[in-house]
Amino acid sequence: MRTSLILAAALLSLAAQPAFSDKTDPLQEGARSFQRADYHAALASWRPLAVQGNPVAQNNLGILYLDGKGVPQDTSEAVRYLSLSAASGSSLGQNNLGGLYRDGKGVPRDYARAAQWFTASASQGNSAGMYNLGLMYEMGQGMKPEPFHAYMWYALAAEQNNIPNAAAHRDTLWSRMTPAAQKQARELTAACKAQAYKGCK
Prior knowledge:
mainly alpha, Serine Threonine Protein Phosphatase 5, Tetratricopeptide repeat, 11 helices
């Protein structure tokens, strides 16, 4: 499930590009190639952009290395490109790097760093980052289990309607809450949304 979330975030980056953009845009060309499973062509489009510092291309190249698509699988290169993307402020790179730290893939497992990257991603409105942060709060990974914050992040992710499990997790937590707890969870969610996902504690 977690690997598919990392890949889903990469696909979201591809889908987020406007459909009407110029066909000569290498980021778009790479996205179209990736969707056709022509990973070598996607690599050829994205690598120059990644080297030039494009954080979306860095994220996408990291995913290619992580999954061994168009390149030999190389977790170290995946970590390198995802780290560059995350450090440049890409919510996609931040979410994906958080997933590597949570799972201990290519880096030592570190729930605190995972939460840091998921929080950075979620604060930019990235639904995958929100969902992953909700999972960490629900399961108490690197923090005390906190159902109110787990509910909040699941609810905010579910509002974007592109993370299928977010609504199910939200609804399961909701069904376990008392009416007073439901009111508190709803208020926490509304407050976070009103703050544009920034500083939600």
